[in-house]
Specification:
Number of domains: 1
Structural class: alpha/beta
Shape: globular
CATH architecture: Alpha-Beta Barrel
Strand order of the largest sheet: 1-2-3-4-5-8-10-11
Largest sheet: 8 strands, parallel, barrel
Strand content: 15-25%
Helix content: 40-55%
């Protein structure tokens, strides 16, 4: 089926207290693995690319890969730009066929973040494409962006931010971090409940890789509607390639170790969908 937007997906997740799993994919094999997992789990799914990923290839190449996979799939698939860092990149992604956009102005002061995000929303509104904004800092390293510490989202600022930008969803800072956790994070999960009560748009959790399943489930029960998964997939894919080549050092066919890595990523994606309770939630 054709690519869909994230708006219906996330609104349904908010209404029915589950989350859609959103996977950052780096290549064709990851895309194939995630879509295959979604079909097996009968789950809606979001495939994401970051600015560095599309700089490595292009928005056109990734959009073509995801669109081809979605066309053959029997579940809804959305293509999302994760951590968009410029309005030019937003325009490029829209032109390439992305069906969801994140613009990340969280490093800016509130006024500048509102202005930066609002412009992206206006650009996307012409194509009826939903926009995810971010308020509060998610720590760690995501792509080429490094954030020191994790700034919690202020509830009153969140109300103003959503009203003035008209974003369709909001990534919130509750103590998570991108990348691999060096120490156990201190999460303010109660803040999620407060934010859900104050704003009407779906909430997004970044930095979920490495969190315990029960913690993610608690975040979802409190109002998280989209859970981003990136680092876990990268680690698993790379380790699968290493293991294959260690077992068969004479292999020179990328299809062989690519297939092995694809199967590992599929299993992880299926597990994530179960944790998010989005299995069986596909709405066609």
């Amino acid at each position: 089926m054709p690519l869909v937007t994230t708006k219906t997906m996330l609104n349904d997740a908010r209404k029915n207290t589950y989350a859609v799993a959103a996977f950052n994919c780096e290549n064709m094999e990851m895309i194939q693995a995630v879509i295959a997992a979604a079909e097996e789990m009968k789950a809606p799914v979001i495939i994401q690319t970051t600015p560095s990923t599309v700089r490595y290839a292009s928005v056109e190449l990734f959009a073509a890969n995801v669109a081809a996979g979605a066309k053959r799939a029997a579940v809804p698939v959305a293509l999302h730009l994760d951590h968009g860092d410029s309005h030019d990149l937003v325009k490029d992604a829209l032109h390439a066929g992305y069906t969801s956009i994140m613009i990340d102005g969280s490093a800016f002061p509130l006024e500048e973040n509102i202005s930066f995000t609002k412009k992206a929303v206006e650009l996307c509104a012409k194509a009826a494409i939903p926009v995810e904004g971010e308020l509060g800092h998610v720590g760690g390293k995501e792509d080429d962006t490094v954030s020191n510490g994790s700034g919690y989202t202020d509830p009153m600022e969140a109300v103003r931010f959503v009203e003035e930008t008209a974003v369709s969803s909001l990534a919130v800072g509750v103590g998570t971090a991108h990348g691999v956790y060096a120490v156990k994070p201190i999460l303010n999960v109660e803040l999620i409940s407060v934010l859900k009560d104050k704003i009407e748009v779906p909430l997004v959790l970044h930095g979920s890789s490495g969190l315990e399943d029960d913690v993610i489930k608690d975040c979802i029960a409190r109002g998280i509607c989209k859970v981003n998964i990136a680092t876990d997939l990268r680690i698993a894919y790379t380790q699968a390639v290493r293991d294959y080549l260690q077992n068969d050092p004479t292999c020179f066919d990328p299809k062989k170790f690519g297939k092995a890595a694809r199967e590992v990523v599929k299993k992880i994606a299926m597990k994530c969908m179960m944790v998010c309770s989005c299995n069986g939630r596909a709405r066609l």
